[in-house]
Design a protein that fits this description.
Elements: H1 3-19, H2 25-44, H3 50-63, E1 93-97, E2 103-105, E3 111-120, E4 124-130, H4 136-139, H5 141-151, H6 156-173, E5 177-181, E6 188-195, E7 201-208, E8 217-222, E9 231-236
Antiparallel strand pairs: 1-3, 2-3, 3-4, 4-7, 5-8, 6-7, 8-9
Helix pairs in contact: 1-2, 1-3, 1-5, 1-6, 2-3, 5-6
């Protein structure tokens, strides 16, 4: 692999990290491990220099939410860790809840709609739709600005390709949804996804744990950081959902 291809490959890995929603610090550590392994491999075949390796390691650390590295040479692998899968448990469906006043206007030309909320014993699944879609160049302006140093030195065509890839990944995440209830339960985002064409995007976002039996109202928050005012959707919960 020549130097230009190597730099392009590394820019792609860093851009992917910027767009990924990591579950915890251990997952981030494993992602950094894999990147260091890729740097070492490229350096061993002469595709990048030791100085380039140091710089790319620092860029990846920033992309993962950390501070720039100050090491004089490439940091070693942080060690292998094994993620132990959680024990299997049955996810029992409890209810499908509709949302009153389920539409709201996004800044920058978009419109958000909550299609429904699925309640399970151990999780909550929010189904949503965006149509039309907002101007993502504005919505993700900070992420695009953060990517610019990673593209330095690449051909213009590759710069635009990496930029488009980052925009695509960010759009697919639906990562701006938050969830709360009237009991103050702390919900964590577990997974989600989206797809769409023709200016329309549909997706789902899952949260854990399941809603406590005593809760009577959920609040769904959409905050894309580029909007002046976050959207809030209230969900009245049925009393009987066992």
């Amino acid at each position: 692999m020549d130097s230009v291809k190597a730099q392009g490959h590394l820019a792609e890995l860093v851009s992917k990290a910027r767009a990924t929603k990591y579950a915890d610090e251990q997952t981030k550590s494993k992602a950094f491990d894999r990147f260091i392994a890729a740097l070492n491999a490229l350096q061993s075949v002469g595709a990048i220099s030791k100085e380039d390796s140091t710089e790319w390691a620092s860029r990846m650390m920033v992309a993962l939410g950390g501070e720039p590295l100050e090491h004089p040479e490439p940091v070693p692998s942080v060690g292998k860790s094994t993620l132990v899968p959680p024990p299997f448990s049955e996810s029992k469906f409890l209810a499908l809840v509709s949302v009153t006043e389920a539409e709201g206007l996004l800044d920058h030309g978009g419109r958000m709609e909550i299609l429904g909320v699925e309640l399970f014993c151990d999780k909550v699944n929010i189904n949503w739709r965006i149509f039309p879609e907002p101007d993502y160049e504005v919505v993700f302006a900070s992420e695009l600005a953060g990517q610019e140093p990673d593209l330095d030195g690449l051909p213009i065509s590759q710069q635009q390709q990496r930029r488009n890839q980052l925009l695509h990944r960010l759009q697919m995440q639906g990562r701006f949804i938050g969830l709360s209830d009237d009991l103050g339960t702390e919900y964590r985002s577990t997974r989600g996804g989206s797809s769409g064409t023709g200016g329309e995007k549909k997706g789902h976002s899952e949260f854990a744990p399941g809603v406590p039996t005593a809760a009577r109202q959920l609040t769904i928050l959409w905050d894309d950081a580029a909007s002046s005012t976050p959207l809030e959707f209230s969900v009245e919960l049925p009393a009987d959902r066992t």
